[in-house]
Write a structure and sequence with these properties.
The structure is a homodimer.
Chain A: H1 2-5, H2 17-29, H3 34-48, E1 53-54, H4 57-62, E2 78-80, H5 85-98, E3 102-105, E4 124-127, E5 134-137, E6 142-145, H6 151-159, E7 165-166, H7 177-182, E8 198-204, E9 210-212, E10 246-253, E11 255-256, E12 260-268, H8 274-287, E13 295-298, H9 299-303, H10 321-331, E14 336-344, H11 346-362, E15 367-374, E16 403-413, H12 416-433, E17 438-443, E18 447-457, H13 461-480, E19 485-488, H14 493-499, H15 502-518
Parallel strand pairs in A: 2-4, 3-4
Antiparallel strand pairs in A: 1-2, 5-6, 6-10, 7-11, 8-9, 8-10, 12-14, 12-15, 13-14, 13-17, 16-18, 16-19, 17-18
Helix pairs in contact in A: 3-5, 8-12, 12-13
Chain lengths: ~550, ~550
């Protein structure tokens, strides 16, 4: 097996090597032959030139998941980087000819969920980061972007044109605007549910056919980025978190620059404040007083961008309440904190602010700090203003060593009681496994996502041995409550998909029937979101 | 052919009988055999009992499209009315066994777009109107409804529970809540884009498999109606305007009862006022000052619910400007009228009202009538308050005789210039064909739908001869501008689908590849939205 033959040694300690290797070997040996990879590589070079085809040892390593529990489990055979749709169409034909699986990435910054690595070791990374075109419709407030456009790229583009429209950015703005929306990432403005603002896609199907969805299916339509449904069935969301096609262009709506931004930053003192806080925000969100989607974060989410664990303790296991109190005191953060923001006309924001203030004062925050901006004033560089940011990623340094985090993100009802129960259950598990608890509760219009970052240090073998059992326990605990994840790391796609079990996994059967019809050779991202093409059926985790 | 053998005579005059009959015969002869229908009918009776199986002459007639140009073109073989999901699963097996096409309807009130009739004559109507269960989650403001639940049913249900949540209703509230949302119907409140408020479906697939989408795929999930995307690809919009499955339950979000409703009814005097009006409303809609989707309607849309043509003239051809002026004077309506509404807290509405008033005053309406309501006051029974209504359907009486209307509804950019050009082009065609112009421009968040009702009198053979060529001309005119319809009558599904032509009809190829994978026998609604299963490939209109 080509990919494995080239595997480099590891500097850091490794965990359960034998088990992992066996499992990984099993996952890749069945269907990808090294001679096929070698032939495909030559064919890729014919199309892209040798400078855009990367199959050396260091290339392979550079596309690994930097936060992985096991670097080899998702080790790629190599990577190719086309710059045009026509090249992608040719690549797809080569992949079909040699039965080589492709793992498309936009910019590969899906940190916490697998980064740039493929689910199936031995896959070829289809790196689309060279495709960076932006088309901007200033009148209507829409863009059409290629996969390689990062939040920084788009921000710079809009800023050079007077920032008439604001972005919504995720905590890691290093990544791709398209990749994030297609993975259902979230931001902080009223346009924060990114996938909901997608309007029209261009997709290379696994047989090379180029499709445009929605109004884009009407050649030359001026409404491709204006009306998302088109005529007949609508497919945009079929290409989210899936493996049915390679998205080469995505329409996205942007928020018009508001006249005013108002709101407040709130801190709450006790763990038990979470329930009342959720019950206070939820109705405001549902009735639309609040249009953005606030995120309630715990003290560690706020503090670990300023400090590291070693500055406070060298004791293993979960932090004691004493240390937590000391850290909170130093950085003046609540056990929970949340920011609420209003966007639009100043006169309307003022009226809405009074409603928010009344509701928040009633539940007695430990602090309430008003925030206010008016068009023309200097703009604070935060997620609330759609300014790209990367500082939340500093949480990877918490434990020291080669740090990282893996996400665990179940969907909950908007209920204080449900959230408190979920918090207590999960916090107890963190303590049981000796991990420090970083969590947030992010509001949608009618749901909550409880985003847990499992922080880790890849140079701590004892800790690393616990990460996988811990995450599987959390998935199991959530399932028992009827909760499923909205998004997960490569390692848990099968496990999470397996929790979506209604009627003997009817949704899986639908997904895989469509998969086999559109991708009979199984060349696109086998295993993504638990969707396995027939060719790789045996690779599904037991 | 069974369906045709039973065809009753017609009381009213008929148009181009020979041509139509030939075409209709051609469309149904190929694939549906009368012996298969007879066998299927017996099997349906075994499951449903004879009282829920309707194959007599009068039954067939009662499921025809009452507004059709040609009653026979979409004449069904009969109808069956199950009351449970298990029965539908059995029906699907019978349809596969005998290769009998089913045409699912919710309540069959899709007037202007085909009513209860099937696209393919000789199909069996699967009438789901007996399925009327409602599950209500008052805390989260969601319902889970079966296909037979009408807007009246749901309104009565909510009213008996204190109307804590408001509906968004279409002009014809006689119809099904589910059917309307799945056909992408629209209403007048901030929840007026009904399809956008769908959250989770239950679907019987063509092979009988029962699927739940989104979080419903997780058995027993409390978040089925709360988070629409689930894990992996999301399918809700795949079942809109399509023929991939039979939707048996639909989750829908409801608007919390607002504290206050404010707004204004505006009339504008001249045809040319349309452009500035659209350019004034569009930015308010995009920035979110206006959350609902206003509809600008012309004088006839307002007047034809109060009067009929015969009261004003007996001249054929399009109405003269003199008559139009007289009618407008009598009913005190503008050439165009529009209503704007704000929903929510009174203090916020007041601030937003001032913004609307300033913007509207600037473009000089001929009248501006403020509207105001506060919780506790008696509620006006209009579309703006989500009260079911049917009065707009009185437009069918405009010409006298057996009246009706057929919709023509292209999607436009939100541009005054584009809308004015579309208006002029279409109005000229109405005059050319001698038809009276009823039109509206309905706002979405970033698009306009130009809904034209082609009013007709089935007892006027001269008029009826013009309807089909007229509608085909409008489709062609729109295509030349890059515009496609968002929804169309059965007669024009192929013609409209044909305008979605990017890359040699790539979207059609995707649709039909999925269709054949999920419905290899082509039993579900062949031809719906121009999607033809392999078995009926020859039926597609040239």
């Amino acid at each position: 097996m080509a990919a494995r033959a080239h595997l480099p040694g590891h500097a850091g300690p490794r965990v359960r090597d034998d088990e992992r290797d066996e499992e990984s070997e099993k996952r890749t040996m069945t269907a990808i032959s090294s001679s096929a990879i070698a032939s495909a590589r030559r064919a890729f070079e014919d199309i892209l030139g040798p400078t855009n085809v990367f199959f050396d040892e260091l290339d392979q390593q550079s596309y690994q998941d930097k936060f992985a529990v096991d670097d080899e489990r998702h080790h790629p055979a190599g990577a190719i980087a086309p710059s045009t749709v026509a090249q992608i169409q040719e690549i797809v034909q080569i992949a079909r000819r040699y039965k080589v699986p492709l793992w498309p990435i936009s910019r590969g910054k899906n940190l916490g969920y697998g980064g740039s690595a493929p689910l199936l070791a031995g896959s070829v990374i289809l790196d689309l980061s060279r495709m960076q075109k932006i088309e901007y419709d200033e009148h209507n407030g829409t863009v059409l972007v290629e996969p390689g456009v990062s939040f920084y790229d788009l921000y710079d583009f809009l800023k050079s044109r007077g920032l008439k429209h604001w972005l919504s950015v995720p905590g890691n703005s290093w990544g791709s605007v398209m990749g994030n929306a297609l993975d259902r990432g979230v931001g902080y403005t009223p346009y924060g549910e990114h996938t909901a603002r997608i309007c029209g896609l261009e997709v290379v199907m696994p047989d090379g056919m180029l499709v445009r969805t929605g109004m884009g299916a009407l050649d030359g339509s001026p409404t491709w980025q204006l009306y998302r449904y088109g005529f007949g069935p609508s497919w945009d969301q079929m290409f989210a978190q899936s493996n049915f096609g390679i998205v080469t262009k995505m329409g996205l709506w942007l928020m018009p620059e508001p006249e005013s931004l108002m709101g407040m930053d709130l801190e709450f003192d006790k763990p038990e404040d979470l329930g009342p806080l959720i019950d206070a925000i939820a109705p405001l969100r549902r009735e639309g007083v609040l249009q953005q989607s606030p995120t309630i974060g715990n003290w560690l989410r706020a503090a670990n961008i300023f400090t590291t664990r070693g500055e406070w303790t060298d004791k293993p296991g979960a932090l004691s309440d004493e240390v937590i109190t000391a850290i909170r005191k130093k950085f003046n953060v609540g056990w929970w904190g949340v920011s609420l923001r209003l966007y639009g006309r100043e006169s309307i924001n003022k009226a809405a602010y009074a409603v928010l203030e009344e509701a928040m004062t009633r539940i007695k925050p430990m602090s309430l700090k008003p925030a206010k901006w008016r068009r023309g004033e200097p703009l604070e560089a935060t997620g609330w203003t759609g300014t790209p940011l990367t500082f939340p990623m500093q949480n990877a340094n918490w434990y020291g060593g080669r740090g990282g985090h893996i996400g665990f993100s179940p969907v909950l009802p908007q209920s204080g009681a449900a959230a408190m129960a979920q918090f207590k259950r999960t916090y107890d598990r963190y303590k049981e496994y000796g991990m420090d608890y970083q969590a947030s509760f992010a509001f949608g219009e009618r749901h909550l996502i409880n985003v847990n970052a499992v922080l880790l240090n890849k140079d701590d073998p004892e800790m690393m041995a616990k990460v996988d059992p811990f995450l599987r326990q959390l998935i199991k605990d959530a399932r028992e409550q009827g909760y499923g994840e909205y998004r997960t790391h490569l390692d848990y796609m099968d496990a999470v998909e397996n929790t979506y079990d209604f009627n003997d996994h009817a949704l899986r059967r639908l997904n895989e029937r469509v998969k086999d019809a559109l991708d009979p050779d199984g060349i696109l991202a086998p295993g993504k979101s638990g969707i396995w093409p027939r060719r790789y059926a045996k690779e599904r985790e037991a």
